[in-house]
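dude i think i finally got it to work??
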Amino acid sequence: MQLRYNFRLYPTPGQRQALARAFGCARVVFNDGLRARRDAHAAGRPYLSDVELSRLVITAAKHTEERAWLGEVSAVVLQQALADLNAAYRNFFASLTGRRKGPKVAPPRYRSRKDARQAVRFTRNARFALTAGGRLRLPKVGDVEVRWSRDLPSEPSSVTVVKDAADRYYASFVVQTCDELLPPVEAEVGIDLGLASFAVCSDGTVIDNPRVLRRAERRLKKAQQALSRKAKGSANRAKARARVAKLHARVADTRRDFAHQLSTRIIRDNQAVYVEDLCVTGLARTRLAKSVHDAGWSAFVNMLEYKAARHGRYFAKIGRFEPTSQVCSACGAKDGPKPLHVREWTCAACDTVHDRDVNAARNILAAGRADRPNACGAQVRPGAVPAPRGEAGTHSKLTPARV
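look at this
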């Protein structure tokens, strides 16, 4: 399994200028390649291949007066910028033809120097290295200080240097990791995600919703008001923009740290984890959109999925149309839909008093266990199969059976 390991970088002022030059050159090559392909399409010429495009916007451009400064950065950075453009076009064409699942992908767009995130990628061909002193050696940049929080499990295949909106620099290493199987346990858990509580487990455990964005709203409001009062293009506006970006970065980091710690604990303590396949995109169109985005359900579920695969646990999603809040987890009677303000209800069939979220989590656990393949690879609860027409009912001797 390939994973990314991110570490904070602390470049010197000279190294910041070198990285800014690399960001700019990669952006120009990407935009030149996109412009060349759009011009070729508008003129009715054939689609430019990857080799022709590289020869046009990199090799030939370096010999012109307008693009001679492309030689000041590593050639691998420029080639990787074109690789990103080619991948964007492949995803776009695959989306048009239906070979790519999910929502439709838009065609590539031009990159702006005002984008909040700037990044360049170095592969092994660039010969980046980790020095004996723990620094990251980048071609035509130098030895950059790295704040190591853990050791890399293997030799990295590439490193991406990222500058975010808060003017922070990160090194993102792609490494090949081995599965770290955890000792087996007997516990299994179903998780019901929500807004009042972030998650409710089938064993009754309730995880409070941190509401990171809601807690930071007052500071964000003041910072954004201060930003709106600054003159455009002034130094004070740049400082105010950095202040807002740092506050948003702190919110994102806090939410990510919460999701990592919670997902790790759940995977460590349970052999199988079942969650509901929520339509987050649809919920984000409702009046609860801010709270849905603040919860970060999708990132949390993705963490559960890849950590379960890495540590030898079973992870599954149940269908989003399962009536988990309508069925009694004790007797199985379906009591019908209930408004959101009903947090407790009593089953009319068995008189069991249910907490809405705990009951839903138990139903998620039961549905996940039923759909899980058994030792022979078959489902415990097979799906509905229509009967053959020749066997559906009793046929009269005078009327021949339909086959």
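The mean pLDDT is 91.
im so relieved honestly
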